[in-house]
Amino acid sequence: MAKATSALSFVPSFFNPKTVGEIRSSDYTAVAAEAERLRGVLGIRPAATDRLRIALMPIDCQIGFCVPGQPLFVGGRSGTGAVEDTRRLCEFLFREAGAITNIYPTMDTHFAFQIFHPAFLVDAADNHPQPFTQIPLADIESGKYAVDPNAAYAVTGSPNGYVQLQKHLVHYARTLSQGGKYSLTVWPYHCMLGGVDHALVPALHEAIVYHSLLRHTQVHPQIKGGNPMTENYSIFKPEVLTAVDGRPIAQRNTLFMEALLTHDVVVIAGQAKSHCVAWSIDDFLTELKAKDPKLAEKVYLLGDASSPVVVPGILDFTDQADEAYRRFASEGMRVVSSATPIRDWPGIDLSRLG
């Protein structure tokens, strides 16, 4: 950990809290120079020497979700949610850089033709559904929405792929319904591989690179969401794992799960609290309970560094997100404030925290 210093000496000079919601280029030379300078000022040791191993998982903190004006900006009810979340997460990371061992940023990664994008579906008049349309099983079984034949060729590569894909659509909606998941949601085109909005929001990416150089530890990005046949909110598994005939179309990310479990503490934040964050935590919790329910106590949720999806007048998932966090806490996970030092969190072994 850091030596005793003034209250703001841990904040690198390249960080400007007023720009956390902006798209801009980064000066990595300045980031590296600050890492070198503050390593000495703060007395930071390499991450390999940590006796208490702490993992930070920022979920989908990408431009598409964290910058105002983007089609899927997560504003929450305040309208500025993800911007304030990013600022708090950056400040948390700077303050606790000497304690955090590894960072695993997840990245939503898509293509144009996917089951949740407008181009995949059409209504009876051959119109694509509008973004944020909720499509329950009944609307698919009745024929109100069906696969666009052009999407079928794009996804399957075969002129005969339409029938196969239409059967999958029905199977997919039925599986969501049986599992108690949200209905299929049509999202705006977002976070497509190679696009600007796919990148991590610059302020947080700079903070992550700074931590990597400061602690001499590599960043471990986790990619999800490229399967056109299923939504993939959780970093640990897609929503549907099988085709209509039972064949696997996707698999669980067990390697990442095991990597997290090598740590003593796992800290989770990011976007959106109601979807990718909540469902990632839910899948993680299920795995932990199967191994040992007490393992849930190693997970800390930064309650003020995630916001729910809110589209004024159309969708508001705030209540669902809050209920999910109450359930996680009841199962042993700990909801904490990003402003509270890690050493003051309940259950932290101070004898192992440097």
The end-to-end span amounts to: 5 Å
**CATH architecture type of the largest domain:** 3-Layer(aba) Sandwich
Main sheet properties? 5 strands, parallel
Overall pLDDT: 94
**Overall CATH class of the largest domain:** Alpha Beta
Concise synopsis of the structure shown:
Helices cover 34% and strands 12% of the residues. It has 10 helices and 13 strands. It is globular, with a radius of gyration of 21 Å.
Walk me through the structure.
It is built from ten helices and 13 strands. The protein is an alpha/beta fold and 354 residues long. The protein has two domains: 43-110 and 192-344, 3-Layer(aba) Sandwich (Rossmann fold), CATH 3.40.50.850; 118-185, no CATH class. The chain has a five-stranded parallel sheet. Mean pLDDT is 94; it is low at 1-7.
List keywords for this structure.
two-stranded parallel sheet; Rossmann fold; 12% strand; 354 residues; five-stranded parallel sheet; globular; disordered N terminus; alpha/beta
